[in-house]
Specification:
- This protein is an alpha/beta fold.
- The chain has 2 domains: 2-92, inorganic pyrophosphatase (n-terminal core) (Alpha-Beta Complex); 97-220, Diaminopimelate Epimerase, Chain A, domain 1, CATH 3.10.310.30.
- 39% of the residues lie in helices and 16% in strands.
- The strands form 2 sheets. A 6-stranded mixed beta sheet has the order 3-4-5-6-8-7. A two-stranded parallel sheet has the order 1-2.
Length: 221
Amino acid sequence: LIDHHQQPDEKSFDYGISNVEKSSTCEMIYDLIIDSGHAEKINHEIMDCIYAGVVADTGSFRFSSADADVHRLVADLKSRGLEHMHVHDMLFDNFLENRMRFIGHVLLNRMEVFYEYNTVLLTVPKSDLLKYHIKTGDTEGLVNYPQSIQGIKLVAIVIDRDEERKWSFRSKGDFDCNSFARNYFEGGGHFNAAGGRSAESLDKTVQAFLKAMKENKSLLQ
């Protein structure tokens, strides 16, 4: 196990490294390679993967986890020949038209803003996934869009998958997404970013979220 999430499932592994202070698991893998004396094994493929993981988990270096060590890591990869623009293009500028139209549809028609609770909820039914031919991965990053709304402290998105309802949570400031996800939706992750799940129907899952949101009103102010 190599993990940077809070409260990892350590019992499932014989050996492991857990460090919640790290920006990403990819940063931990980089440290492991360097500290074990195998820096020469970092080729272009490994560099691309490490950089992609760091970019994704730091919100393109926007989150507080993007500390000085992270920037030194990137500087080292650049000195080894990292082509960061190529990785960025593959991560963010490599989608089909249907995904762009899907994002527009969700933000226009599936977004609810609860200003009393400084919260945004995005609800994506399965019919939307089918209509826009959305594949796994196409919804990545959608939860981040409403964070640009002034005053919003918590953003949640629930997606109606075949087997269950999938949650993603993002917060600003001192609202603990990890605890929220663990307490209400069998999930977890980081303080400001977490995920969860529900076996209930989409409607019941949304109602459970609204109830949880109201119970946490004081923390969302």
